[in-house]
Amino acid sequence: MVVTYNSAEHIEELLDSIPASMGTLAYSVVVVDNGSSDSTVELLEQRADVIAVRSSNVGYAGGMNRAVRASPPADAVLILNPDATLDNGAVPAMLDVLRKPGVGIVAPRVREADGSLSPTLRRGPTLGRVGGLSFTGWPAFTERIEKAAEYDTEHEVDWAVGAILLVDAECYERLGGMDESYFLYSEETDFSLRAKDAGWSTVYTPNASAMHIGGGSGESATTHIMKQVNRIRLYRRRAGTTHAWFYYGMTVLIELRRALLGHDKSWPTVRALLRPSLRPPALNAGGSILPR
């Protein structure tokens, strides 16, 4: 399942990598286009190996849920970003892990375009981890898992970046799919944590590999605002309003510090965090200071 938005530069490379990644597995490819203005739709409709679904921009989670609904019945859902490519035999290797008891989501080893390791594994959000202090190397303060040794063995994780994930179809259905209220960012975090609450684990395996270029849809001040607002929303929904106020306050201070250090996307983010009317309407995050 793929959701595209102005993805003409990357989508064909992904689609061309899928057959060899599947081995002997039977599969279908569904791509939902969220209102691209480039040639993405034309490229998709020229291919016989794709079920292309046109959509307005309903966000990433909304697009993925539509892709699943448009797909023929299957035992698993393969979630792919359009700027990813899969290595040969990657999906059977992931499926072997998914078939183990209690596993609901499988994440492969991912590399950057230059061949270096992409640190896609994450710890769950906490007040201590709100600052993203990866340089400390301390798990209590670091959501992103940086140590290369953590990517050498198969193990359970709290969540993984959603560029390439294999999900048990029953898990996806029982959870009601991805939460469309996030629109963009945090939907994979929310999904993995809800899966864990329901008894399904997320497991990383180094036996399957892929590449993710990253930033295929670009990042702007608007998407940076979405990212920070959704992190607060996710934390509020899981930890409650009282703890979320602390998380919100720390996020404002962190973005203010980044703005003073010259990060141009942080000034608009600070303003949007302090003034709800400046937040992207697509988030529908409510008019209160603390995003819902």
From TrEMBL:
SUPFAM superfamilies: Nucleotide-diphospho-sugar transferases (SSF53448). Keywords: Glycosyltransferase, Transferase. It is an enzyme of class 2 (transferase). GO terms for molecular function: decaprenyl-N-acetyl-alpha-D-glucosaminyl-pyrophosphate:dTDP-alpha-L-rhamnose rhamnosyltransferase activity. Its EC number is 2.4.1.289. Signal peptide: none annotated. Residues 2-116 form the Glycosyltransferase 2-like domain. It holds the Pfam family Glycos_transf_2. InterPro entries: Glyco_trans_2-like, Nucleotide-diphossugar_trans. Gene3D superfamilies: Spore Coat Polysaccharide Biosynthesis Protein SpsA, Chain A (3.90.550.10). This is N-acetylglucosaminyl-diphospho-decaprenol L-rhamnosyltransferase.
